[in-house]
Amino acid sequence: MINRTLLAGRDIARRIINNPDYGWSIATSYGHIGLNIVVQILLVPLYLHHLGKVEFGVLMIVLGAVNYLGLGIGWVSSGAQRIMGEFSAQNERENLQRTYTLSKIIFVVYAALTGGIALSLVWALQGTLFPDNPSLAIATIRMVALGVVYMVVLYDFNVDRLVLISIGKQAWANAHSILSLAVFAVTIFPVLSHGGGLVSVMAALLFGVLVARAVSFILVHKQGLRLRWPGHEGRAVLKRLLGPMGLGYGLYGALLLTLLQADTLILGVLGGPLLVADFVLVWKIADVAMQALWRLPESLIPYLIQMDARGEHQRMQSIYASAQKGMVFVAVIAALGFALFGHNVVVLWVGVEHAPDLPWAYELAGGTLFWLTIARLPAVYAFSQVRLKPLIKVTALEAIGKVIFVFALFPTLGLYAPLVAINVLHILGIAYLYQRLYNV
Question: Where are the transmembrane segments (predicted)?
């Protein structure tokens, strides 16, 4: 097993050397993950110290909601990435720019509308959500209001990232995400140390994405890309986005977001901010590790799209065979490591007074890390080749099954419910169905 994995690793390394942009995209992608890990390691203890566990739980719920609201825009994000990748591969510059413009219009309008609705709901339900803490209700409303502005800028910025990725500038797109995170980190540490609260956290996030957006604007223009009114060609692109491909991507994106982001929202409704805080502390490091392991296959997406558009399927198969062996190997190591030492790591991270000491919680989190990691490469291949029907079926079974399990198990298992749900579902057959995706 180890020899095969080493051979697979050498094959992947050879491919990276032969494709410098992919190598840089991997390096910057992991640079972003590494910086995120450092920031989270330093920030979470500060959140707990300066905000307290209840406000920390509220912050996690709001940030989870911001991420989850993206479920309605997946049909544009994934579909536009596919279409812009095709136009780039075929050197259709004018159509690329029209798709870029159309995507910006849809993204910004969507962010403003959904953010406004979310703010209205929090305003209307403040008495129910915070019956005994009016000052926390006011702080939350202000944070959500600033969050709406953050969403608009972030979604506009994400379209710039998509177009840069489509023209082979994935490393630059990743670098802009690193810049956004770095500016946030440099801003938030002194702000928290000087008494900043929930609103200050959102303001720092907004400042970071504003700086990155300004830099991405400059780079996009240097590539000769301009906003072009979509016109008749834009209607053809919109038809594709609203057709089976775009809606399929949208449904898959909504299901994936539900799978990854719904935990804090459901636990927040069922158990409140304190329970969410404990769940985040148990799962956060494993989640960051999973996201890091996902970056290798996800960085392949723009190249797989172009290979698929050119019909280079034998090359795709060769890459898959090499990469999946490596993914299984690192997933085993990461899962066992967290299962055995997760509690010790969290104690070192936030202190013994904050680290949840729950039997089997870290073992279950390690199992969840393993199953989700080995499922990602076949999902990426199906996604890149627009084989959405089988991908959606498997992801729907997993996401819907998880939500049902969480609600059913919560009265007995509490914060264990999401972790138990993933492990049980994959053992019962979801893991097998994911591995079959590439052969469908």
Answer: 21-44, 56-76, 105-125, 137-159, 171-192, 198-220, 241-260, 266-286, 326-352, 364-384
* Rounded distance between C-alpha atoms, residue 399 and residue 226, angstroms: 39
Phi and psi at residue 312, in whole multiples of 5°?
-90, 60
Helices (H), 90-224: 93-124, 126-129, 134-166, 170-193, 198-222
Mean pLDDT by 10 residues, the chain (440 residues): 48 52 74 84 87 86 82 73 83 86 90 91 77 82 92 92 85 90 93 88 95 92 83 79 78 83 85 87 90 84 80 83 87 94 90 86 95 93 86 94 94 93 95 83
Q: Which is nearest to 135 in space by CA: 58, 48, 45?
A: 58
Structure tokens at 419: 């972790």
**pTM confidence score:** 0.72
Instruction: For residues 61 and 77, give the distance between their C-alpha atoms in angstroms, rounded to a whole number.
Output: 24
Rounded to 10 deg, the angle between the 170-193 and 20-50 helix axes is 20
The DSSP string of 239-283 is: HHHHSHHHHHHHHHHHHHHHHHHHHHHHHHHHH-HHHHHHHHHHH
Q: What gap in Å lies between CA 254 and CA 71, rounded to an integer?
A: 4
- Domain ranges, ordered by start, for the chain: 34-242, 264-439
CB within 8 Å of 29: residues ≥ 6 apart: 174, 295, 298, 299
Residue environment code for 168-183, b if the CB has 16+ CB neighbours within 10 A, otherwise e: bbbbbbbbbbbbbbbb
